[in-house]
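Usage

Read records sequentially. Each one opens with the input sequence:
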Amino acid sequence: MKNLRISHKLWGAVVAIVIALAAVVGTSAYRSAATQARSAQVTADMAMRVEAALRWAGLTETNAARTQAIIVSSDPAMEAEFKDLIAATSAQITEVQKSLEALPLSEADKAQMAAIVAARKTMTELRARARQLKADGQQAEATALVKQSYSPAVAAYLQTLRDFVQLQQRNAQAGQQAVAAERLVTVRVGALAVALLVACMVAGAYVLIRSIQQPLAEANALAARIAGGDLSATQTSVRGDELGDLLRSLQTMGDSLGRMVQQVRRSTDSIAIASAEIAAGNQDLSARTEQTSSNLQQTAATMEQFSSTLQQSAGSAREASGLAEGASGVARRGGEVVAQVVATMEEIQQSSRKIEDIIGVIDGIAFQTNILALNAAVEAARAGEQGRGFAVVAGEVRLLAGRSAEAAREIKGLIGASVERVHAGSRLVQDAGATMADIVQSVQRVADMIGEVTAATSQQSAGISQVNQAVGHLDQMTQQNAALVEESAAAAQSLREQADQLTRTVSVFRVDHGAGFAPGAAAAQAPVAAPTARLTPRPTPSTPPRPAPRAVAAPAKAPAKVPTQGPRPTPAPAPALQVAGAPVSAAAAGDRPAPASPPPSKGSAPAPKPAAAARATAGGGDDDWTSF
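and closes with the structure output:
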């Protein structure tokens, strides 16, 4: 039972109860159903037998009445009418008899059936004799036979059927009584089985509760000891169920809690040492932060001067850009005038070409006039005396045409010379226009370059202003960092106090073999007490920085420098932060911009720094902080 799981025990008990209940209920239901079926069967058989007997009696009474009517009546039609009916009814009675004999019958039923069959046989024989006498014409004898023998036989026959019905009723009552007795037995057996089942359930529940209560009490005692701080309690269990697992888990929890308490105590000792080192390092960090702030202020002043110079250069560049723009405008206007002169020369050249064309037309007219005058003179000569006057006119016309042609040739020569000069002047003007356009383009390029220089100077001035603002913000953040360093020092002191409180809290636990608590506490108290001289409050960032914390004189053997976590977002890299007493590296000191005023004298460090260095060396070089 100890190695059986509680779930298996509970499920086993439930399954056993269910099986037992199912068996009791099933048996009771089966017996009740069987009893009910038997009762129904007895009732149905009785009803069928009674119904058959009553029908048999009814058919018999009908045939008896018909027979008496035939025998007593002297009407031949009566016999003809009832003869077939009597035969059919007799056939029905025979079928009823056969169906009744086919039913399950007891010995008493069979004996009564034999009496019924005998009575029927007697009645049938008497009916046959009476009908035979009637057929033979012996009406009086037939009537006497019916009254004296046939009617009593019919009455006896019907009485046997009534006795059979009464017998069936008595059998039905006996069957119902037997069924009731069987039902009573079934109920009593079921009640006894339920009582036995309840007794078994109570006994099983008692055993199951005992098997659960004892290990639970052991687990409760172990948990109470652990809750009281006694982590050295041990409990062994060989049980294989869930309670055994619970005891083993509680034991494992106590062991794990003991190891955790030991580890927490060692961690509190380390935290106390580390908090002291953090406080000492925060003092040095505060001094370096103040030095960085001074350097940033000097850098901001230099950037202001550089920004002012760039603004002056930007103003001069803007003035030069304005002058270049003026020269470019004058050159553009000169280019426009030259372009107008070129256009005017082009128009003069076109007018000269038109005049030359007109002179050509005049020369052609003079030539045609001369030809016409010559023809007129020839015609006048042919006319003789009548044409002499016309010849004189023709001669004058030829003279005029000749003079016109000569004048046209002279004008053409003059116009040709003018056209040549216009061509030459037009070429010169075009060359002057091209030269002026080159001058305009050159002046424009100069103006554009000066504009670009002006824009670049403005951008540089804006960039310097942004850098100056960034330096100002950086200086402000440096001042804030100094304040945060002060808060960090206070937090380190609070951390050490909380570590002491945690040590006292954990000391209430008792673990096996003493857990080494006392040696750990002694080891923790010595390093923690030393840095108290370093945790003096420093002034706010508004007060002048103390020169003592900034002293970084290199001792004979400098402790290992703690590396920084990443580059600082300042224009010039600040020296890497170090453990208390460690010097600044030469590379960092060389990269740092020179302050406006010489730093304080680098003398020997104050008295607390060698103590901090000694603590760092005694701690095995386990630095718990790097940079802030």
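Summary fields computed downstream for this record:
- The chain is about 80% helix and 0% strand.
- Residues 514-628 have pLDDT under 50 and may be disordered.
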